[in-house]
Amino acid sequence: MKLCKDTKKDLLKLAQEKNIHLEGNILKIIDIEGEDSDFVDYIKTATEKDKSSRKRRLEITKQIQSQNKELTTAAEERENLMLNIKNAFDESEKSKQLIEEKNKELTEWKDENERISEELRNALNEAENAKKEAIKAKETAEYDLNILQKKKETELISNIVKVALMLIVGAGIATTALYITALLTGKDTYIIGPAWSNTLSILITNAFSIIGTIVGVKYATGKNKF
Amino acid sequence: MNDMIDSILLVDDESLFHLVFEDACSLLDISLTLECINSADEAGTKFSEWHKNPKGRPVCVFVDLNIIGSTFDGIELIRRINFEYGNHVVIGIISSSNEATEQAKALQAGAQFWIIKNDDIEPRLEEFKKDYPSYVNRTANFKIYR
Fold first, then answer.
1. What is the pTM of this model?
2. Which residues, at least 6 apart from B26, have a Cβ–Cβ distance to it below 8 Å?
């Protein structure tokens, strides 16, 4: 592209007075072949300035880009960190819940154990009571058996005594009847008389002995009842 | 001036990279005309229109791989440009990614090059500028600028 004389003059004036130059790709399409040295220098200067400013902008843009990348990386790391913290928190919450559940189970087990212990204690007490009652029943049974045995013994002794008394009374009556018969019929009483006397004395002695025995047995039986 | 690319389109969601790319292209005398847009959808619409009327269509397109805010990625945009909107441009990926699987996908979609974007983009663009004629006449193989 070729510029007209006035345009070139204006551009040079602008550069001299205000240091303003053309910039951008337009510089690449301006044809400077055959132009005067002032304009060629102007285009070279403008191109240098443009390249310099582009380089500067490129460096700054790259720096910003790099910083952006670092910020993005930091943000991602922070996000990951937050995610990790959240996961750790969730894990701790789960662990807490698990511990609470285990504690609840343990409490239930403890309650169950206490209940079973209480039941065992009650069962033990009941067993002890049953044992005591059994011992008491045994003692009662033994006592009753003893009493029964005593009663039987007493009955037996009583029967023996009755039979003995009946025999004594019978022997006494028989001897006396013989002696009276002998007296009434005038028979000889030389033998029967002393025999009757001896027999009667023996019978009386035995009768008192038996009566004493009965009284003693009755006394003993009555004392055992208390 | 003769070896400069007539017009370039950059499709990238990162506005700061637009400035970097523009300044780098200007300093390296790569192109006089550069348009930057930040959406694959917008680029697709433009190419759809250029398919009917090619006036204003760029001759070289640089596409970012992941264009945030777009309904499809850079590889899909390249596929559409190549297979739906005619194949009249030199086109490739400019991305910070260096994944072989993505590069294979891009090649399949018709990408001619893959420029790895980093802080020092100028040497890669300079190398690309040298290779550009071979992309225009389709003699160059798919190349990755590391």
1. 0.62
2. A24, A25, A54
- pLDDT single digits (tens) A68-117: 889 999 999 999 999 999 999 999 999 999 999 999 999 999 999 999 99
Whole-angstrom distance, CA of residue B114 vs CA of residue B144? 5
Number of domain units in chain B: 1
Q: Is the per-residue pLDDT at A215 higher than 50? A: yes
Residue contact A29–B32, C-beta within 8 A = yes
User: What's the angle, vertex CA B9, arms to CA B8 and CA B11, rounded to 5?
Assistant: 150
Nearest CA in chain B to A63: B119
- Is residue A153 pLDDT above 70, yes or no? yes
DSSP A23: -
Kindly determine whether residue A28 and residue B19, on different chains, have CB atoms separated by under 8 Å. no
Which CATH number characterizes residue B63's domain? 3.40.50.2300
> Which of B14, B23, B29 has its CB closest to that of A57?
B23
For residue A23, the distance in angstroms to the closest alpha carbon of chain B comes to 11
Q: Domain range holding B64?
A: 5-145
- Distance between CA B46 and CA A106 in Å, rounded? 72
Contacts A65 to B, Cβ<8 Å: 14, 16-17, 20, 119
A32 burial level (CB within 10 Å; 0-12, 13-18, 19+): middle
Cβ contact, residue pair B1, A29, below 8 Å: yes
pLDDT in tens, B37-66: 999 999 999 999 999 999 999 999 999 999
Going from N- to C-terminal start, the domains of chain A cover 5-84, 139-224
Contacts of A55 in chain B (CB under 8 A): 23, 27
CB B5 within 8 A of CB B33: no
Interhelix angle B100-109/B74-83, nearest 10 degrees: 20
